[in-house]
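Box S2. Input/output pair 1.
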Amino acid sequence: MTSEFQALKRQDTWTLVPPSNQNLVGCHWVYKLKRNSDGSIARYKAHLVAKGYHQHQGMDYDETFSPVVKPATVRLIISIATQQNWSIKQLDVSNAFLHGLLKETVYMQQPPGFINPKYPNHVCQLQKALYGLKQAPRAWF
């Protein structure tokens, strides 16, 4: 949880602001086990996830649609690349949604276990998208 929280801080995901009468989105931690190919535990992971079901359309978000590539298109491109002897590379973007800037103003409660002792009553004004927000895929796109 600490390393995830530090990554969120490094990305300037939010700024702490005094609470207002705006809608407040909750958040919670989601835990996963990453395993090696033999089934043994490689590491423990924690993700901070916004409770997007607390959001109201028109207030916290407008657009949610994000274009997605169809599997048939991927197969076609791989087929062409193979025929032309092109090299193919794959990549994974770490914390992908944290790179999406939010257009809307969204307020979220401070993460459980990481409440700022100087500002315990402040809320997070999100600058970047978090997993769980309805507009996160659109912001990442």
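Box S3. Input/output pair 2.
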Amino acid sequence: MVRSTVIRLFGLALGVTLIAGCGGTDAPKQAGTSDNSVSGAPSSTPLPPAPGALPRIAVLATGGTIAGKSTPGSGVGYTAGQASAQDLIDAVPGIDKIATLQPEQVANVGSQDMTEEIWLTLARRINQVFADNAADGVVVTHGTDTIEETAFFLDNVVGGDKPVVLAGAMRPATALSPDGPANLRAAVTVAAAPQARGRGAMVVLNDTIHGARDVTKTHTTSVQTFVSPNSGPEGYVDTGSVRFVKSPLPHQRPRFRLPDAAPLPRVDIVYSHAGMRADQVHDAVGHGAKGIVLAGVGDGNTAKSVIDALAAANDDRVVVRSTRVGAGEVMRNAEINDDELGFVTSADLNPPKSRVLLQLLLANDITDPTRVQQEFATR
């Protein structure tokens, strides 16, 4: 393999390259620069609210169950993305006492229909809001099915230290006891809290605050569906007060430069199972995938024929080993010789988030396996 020699050095060099490649103390670059790193903090100096003034929170709505309405004649069915941003705010008594809200409708779709175009629109809008000092924080209302992917995308492309909080609901707005209003109130409370700065994107549902990297949906219908299996939650909202149980990162991570337009480079997820054949790999290659994420069994493993196909595909694209298991880290060179085969391991990123990160890396022309592995270890 062309890449084997390069990757074989990774185990020895990781401790040094992590510091040199991602965690340096230089100021982040602005969006649109030619550097492959990322956009940094907005150029304008944030102004604190006037004494006694409420925090200013932009509420960007994208649809989802939180904006859903029941289907006539159905006991369980509903249509996502029916209520507007202003409708959602109007359904929360007293929310205007927490912050001055600025509603804006960015999209109105079920999150199964979330697109890269909407991701880019959201990211550009949030960066502009912060650059103009038009808000002290942003809340994004979103469907729960793909909220973790959108949160992780925004966490890697939005500059500055102001909070970005995503909220959704497991029950539609017309349900007997909708959870959306309480979740929106909690999200606004978090976004308005001074201690929320510097924590990147967060997801808030059921009075629990999760970081974008680890949060994942674990139940089809329960309001307590979101957990952070590897690191635990960031904090909690309790009767209007915010309590963080983790400290923010000591420094701002560089953010990726936003691509000019969608689509992002194609990355396919290949799902491993008993009796698996290499057809999924061949299909991804045949359809022009620039990267492949393996949702492997156990520690990111799969059938030998599939490993062989991934190794053959690795000369022209990046292959990342993740796992379909709900928690834990994929260990490098444990069951599979990643150095020899030229594979990248996902650390504790699940397959959907591994796909998002690989798309951003490829969009920023970061294809060297050692650098890709470094990014997976530090983001």
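Caption for Box S3: Residues 267-377 form a domain with the Rossmann fold fold (CATH 3.40.50.40). The chain has a mean pLDDT of 87.
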